[in-house]
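Hi there. Long-time user, first ticket. I'm pasting a complex I've been working with (about 948 residues overall). I'd like to know whether the download I got is complete or cut off, because the file seemed smaller than I expected. Thanks.
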Amino acid sequence: MAKVPVQFTLNGEEKADFVDGGATLLKVLREKVGDTSAKAGCQQGTCGSCSVIIDGELRLSCLTLAETCGGAEIHTTGGLATDGVLHPLQRAFMDEFAAQCGFCTPGMIMAAKVLLDRNPNPSHEDVVEALSGNVCRCTGYEPIIRAVLTAARSNSQNAA
Amino acid sequence: MTIRRGRGVAAVNYPTGMNLGGDPSQALVHSTPTGNFMVTLSSVDLGQGLKQVMAQICAETIGVKTEQVIIDTADTDTGPHCMGTFASRGTHRIGNAVIQAAREARQVMLEVAAEALEVDAGDLDTDGDGNIHVKGAPQKSISIFDTALMAHFKLGRSISGRGMFLVPRSYPEVETGAMKPSTCYAHACTVAEVDVDDETGEVTVISMKNVFEIGRALNPKMVEQQLVGGSWMGISHALYETTEPYYPKRDHAGTDFNEYLMPGPGDIAPTEIIVLERPAEDGPYGAKGPGEMCANPQIPALANAIFDAVGVRIDMMPITPERILRALREKQAA
Amino acid sequence: MKLAKSYFADQRTDDLKELGQGLPRSDVPGHVTGKTTYFADRTFPGMLYLKMVRSPHHHARIRSVDLSDAEKHPGVHRILTHKDIPHNLYTILILIQVGPEDEHVLAEDKVRWKGEAVVAVLADSERAANEAAAKVKVDYEVLPDVLDIDSALAPGAPIVNEHHGQNYYMYDSGQSRKVRYGDVEKGFAEADHILEQTYYSSPIEQAPMETTGCIVTPDGNDRFTCYTNTQAMFFTLDNTSIILQMPGHKLHMVGGTVGGGFGGKVDVTVEPIAILAAKLTGRPVSFIYGRYEEMQISSPRAAEKIVLKDGVMKDGRIVARQVWGYTDAGAYSRHSPYGAQKGAAHYPGPYTIPNVWVDTWCVYTNRTPSSAMRGFGVTIADFALEVQMDKLARLIGMDPLEFRFINAYRDGDMKAHRQPTTGAALIECMQEASRVANWPIAEKYLEMSSYKEV
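Hi, the file is complete. Here it is re-exported in full:
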């Protein structure tokens, strides 16, 4: 199969590799780059477990061809903590007991991060809207919504 | 078009564990040279928090902090046999095995400390904060750290324990069905309130009030996780879910999360949860299995609330708007 | 969540230190940083991907299988058929002597449900495996099928599974698991009202976010390590040992960190074939269900049909309850004979009824085999029981909640399967529900207790 060169930054670090034509970004991140934080929940764009941030936009890495990511800035939950310090969203997911099996959690956190980056003081409805592409089977969503609102509050307290 | 409100109640019980050729689980506990404790299992954490609750059970029994306990599971080369994670058996069966193993390890630990302090092991107690002391004389004490070092390097004793919990197999009596299929029972009562749109058949869950009795809540935050998620799944089962919407026909079968319907974050019902604790005589520190029971009472409570609202009985799950609407049309025609 | 501490306070000593505390979960830092290792977060050099060729028919005879085009497809390493499986006919519960063996790992002469595995393709990429699987030619002779409980039990119905010989599981008690307690006919004769109703459910998917799967590596010493998300490590190991006729000490299962199960990962469907593939190719093998397979191939919660017949007195006492419960097992047993039996012991629900008669059936149809799910054998029974309770209350003009108090079981009451009730708490749950939901009930019910005065 024809290999395609691709170069992007992942959580601020330069990555370059030859990938199979047609390979998804999800597969490349997990199997070639070694960042397994994005999960393969359905590989057909219906569950959100593979969510990553590409150039500031929330994207499903299972529906994104790796070869289209040349020059892109990609962020994943795997790179969200800086120098071992958790992001407020990660902290809030812990404090609010918003993760059970944890499989949807990295995708949920990506969706929430894109929301908070754009809207630091979201309403309950804003959070629901932002998470509506991400499926969770364990929690009933309530603690996840609470965690995102808690993270937003702690962000605004830190800013103040 | 009218929005009609109704409410319904349901009450259920649920057996802990199962009766499949006997119901065993094992646990091994040992201390490290510096007085941390390893629990070795082959039990599976599906996400419900089995590892955390086993660490707390072990810590409580030995008399140390939970963070000093490491759970090593599930590797069949190292972990002793566990039947598996199902039938609400995890906390109860594996917890009992961990208690037995931890008690044995605690006894050795106290014997080692007794030698160091030159007292009788029966006179010693743990303070839960890393020390062993003489009952009534807290100044006469030794740390668990030093006790473990001494066991390893001076006395040559293994601070360890073996735990096994078995519910023996029960063969149902052929004529009468007399059998012992499980152990303790959890309980629940749910009151559901709904609005039903009699033009579209659409159901909005106005409130879901759940009362659960689960023995002891060993970690109330994790119990809450189970119960909130379970209540959501109950609503989902009642109103949305099936792989075969026109069973027994095989068409319209869902193959992904766009076609297989479940309530999303925008559809969640205001949910209240109250927990009663009647300790189970045979449970680890009184616990029963809450994992499955919590998703059951919402289904009939919703069915009964829908009848209360619009006067039609949908005796087939799931109770979809289509089924409600067809029933309303039939009722009008009659 | 609120803990209602006033109930059963006399039975608790609140002296626990580490328990009773909402301590943070030690695994969650891994979840929120994406560092938790699930079985599929591993990649091995030279890994092969396994894809199943599955039956497009509900019921068909296999005339022939032609692998020639598929074998030539670039990237294909090996294609497995039933001839490669040492002990191809299995059933999961044979471990506890619940037979007969009734299911093929890979189909031989027949397929009995739409989706049944026929041929396993191993290729060096998922894409090549999928493309090659599409080139496998199976010639089927379509047979008449039965797709629901009633047609399966109708006289002259096509036989779904010859290993059973009839379309239901044969228990030692006959065609159903039976519970007989008191005399239901006498109870019905005394009753003021009799109500018989039928309840149905459709199959439900467990839908864990992580699909069923495993990755196997040959250790080089004729042992195999299988990273799996099974819910039961030794169930998987022991069944694999039987199917592959491989001593258990050659198998090493690693798991325990799973992205949700809900009962959907109790069957043993991926590990035996993946381990065999690793053995025959000497390569690591990945076999992971896609979401389509998780939804339509992996065992769902069974469809059920439940008939309840109750005799009730005007004063609210239920004096007889008769139950016919039918579980649609699909084409194979898996855990369904046990699930139906669990249902038999669950009736008549948390109520004390003097006359109870239960028959639960495990019925075979040409559908996806059903198996365990959260509430196995109980969830649908509770739906039927509790809707029936509502109907009975309205039939005699009684408040549905008060009606349940009249019949609620209490400590010491004998259950239909002849176990005395211990640790009852239904009454207290209902009392608290009446308070929290503002559902008024008579004072006498608020004064009741699950404890029985001696």
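A couple of notes from our side: The longest helix of chain B spans residues 90-117. Residues 88 and 291 of chain B are 6 Å apart (CA to CA).
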